[in-house]
Every structure is written in structure tokens, then in C-alpha cells.
């Protein structure tokens, strides 16, 4: 089963924007993500509607952040993407009248709700500035390894 990687892809694009600290066109972001600029525009439009990014037209235009990274949570991004399904597993629906299936669905459903609540809490606590700091530290460590090698 294919995983939904939209959240990761969007975060990837946003970190390229943060690193550049200048407007990035949909074509620029498409190159970073190895995708089509139309896909980028469609996705970024949802982020624009949520007040996360804004776009400028013409020469020197492109996508920029609408507010500081420290004010944007992963939960904000998740909501802007339309709240994609977090888990691929779910309740069975083959025998809705079966008491065994009902019990299984109840137990599995409760566990999934708990896990999703924990994930959403983590998303709410994590800011894009946290992700940018992590990326910056990793990039610095990589440069240090290549400079000494």
C-alpha cells in the first residue's frame, strides 16, 4: 500500500524556502521535490489559503512565508493539507453485525484514536523553526565531515 507523503514533501519544500530566505518559484520547488510545478502550485495554494505562505507574481516573485517560522506548527501544515489520513489501518466492515468484529473495531479504534491524539499534540508543539534548526545542525555536521575528509 502506497504511503501518503504529502506532509513530508511539503515540509521538504518549506525547508528549502527557509534555507533560501528569498522567494522561490513553483518551478524551483518542483526541482527540489522532483515533481511537477503544477503539483507544487496546487499544494502551495492550500498553504496560502491557510495564511502560511504567500506568493508574488512577476520578476522576483515566488513563494515566501506569510509569517515567521516560529509561528507555524506542523499541525497548521497538516490542517492546510486537508488533514490527510494518518494511519492506513482501520476498522473492518465485512460483518458489521458480528460481535467479534465490533469488539475488535472498538479496541483497534480506541488505540488509533490515542495514537492520533499523541501525534497531533506533537505536531502542535513542533514549529517550522524547530525543523529548520534540526536541518541546520545536520547540514553543519555534514559540512564538517566533508571539510575534514
From TrEMBL:
Q: Which GO molecular function, any one, fits this protein according to its record?
A: DNA-binding transcription factor activity
State the GO CC annotations: cytosol
**SUPFAM superfamilies, A to Z:** Winged helix' DNA-binding domain (SSF46785)
InterPro entries, sorted: Tscrpt_reg_Rrf2, WH-like_DNA-bd_sf, WH_DNA-bd_sf
Annotated membrane-spanning segments are none
What is this protein called in UniProt? BadM/Rrf2 family transcriptional regulator
Query: What lineage is on file?
Result: Bacteria, Pseudomonadati, Pseudomonadota, Alphaproteobacteria, Hyphomicrobiales
Amino acid at each position: 500500500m502506497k504511503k501518503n507523503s504529502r506532509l513530508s514533501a511539503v515540509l521538504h519544500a518549506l525547508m528549502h524556502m527557509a534555507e533560501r530566505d528569498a522567494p522561490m518559484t513553483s518551478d524551483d520547488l518542483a526541482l527540489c521535490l522532483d515533481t511537477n510545478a503544477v503539483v507544487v502550485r496546487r499544494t502551495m495554494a492550500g498553504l496560502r489559503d491557510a495564511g502560511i505562505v504567500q506568493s508574488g507574481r512577476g520578476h522576483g516573485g515566488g513563494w515566501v512565508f506569510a509569517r515567521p517560522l516560529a509561528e507555524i506548527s506542523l499541525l497548521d501544515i497538516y490542517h492546510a493539507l486537508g488533514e490527510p489520513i494518518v494511519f492506513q489501518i482501520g476498522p473492518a466492515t465485512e460483518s458489521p453485525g458480528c460481535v467479534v468484529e465490533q469488539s475488535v473495531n472498538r479496541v483497534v479504534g480506541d488505540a488509533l484514536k490515542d495514537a492520533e491524539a499523541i501525534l497531533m499534540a506533537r505536531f502542535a508543539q513542533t514549529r517550522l523553526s524547530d525543523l529548520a534548526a534540526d536541518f541546520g545542525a545536520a547540514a553543519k555536521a555534514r559540512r564538517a565531515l566533508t571539510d575534514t575528509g
